[in-house]
Write a structure and sequence with these properties.
The chain is an all-alpha fold. Helix content is 82%, strand content 0%. The protein has 3 helices and no strands.
Length: 83
């Protein structure tokens, strides 16, 4: 058996165990608590998405600025170099 298949089997077993634990814990809380926790998780993930979007916007702005610095200026592009 290859190392990869061992890791794949272990990963599958860990996932099954995590799913069983999650299902067991759901039964301990009233449905309203579960709903609030799910909504909280969703909001947290949306906040992470907003953070990532802002970071991407800053990165893209930096890329545009770098490209603009290396582009030849329009008035320089049409004139031959000085002799």
């Amino acid at each position: 058996m290859s190392d990869q298949s061992i890791f794949d089997r272990a990963d599958a077993e860990f996932r099954k165990a995590a799913d069983r634990i999650t299902e067991s814990l759901k039964g301990l809380f009233p449905p309203a608590v579960t709903e609030h926790l799910s909504n909280s998780q969703r909001e947290f993930l949306l906040a992470l998405r907003s953070f990532a979007d802002a970071a991407l916007a800053r990165t893209e702005a930096g890329i545009r600025e770098a490209r603009d610095r290396v582009k030849p200026k329009a008035d320089e592009a049409g004139t031959p170099p000085a002799a």
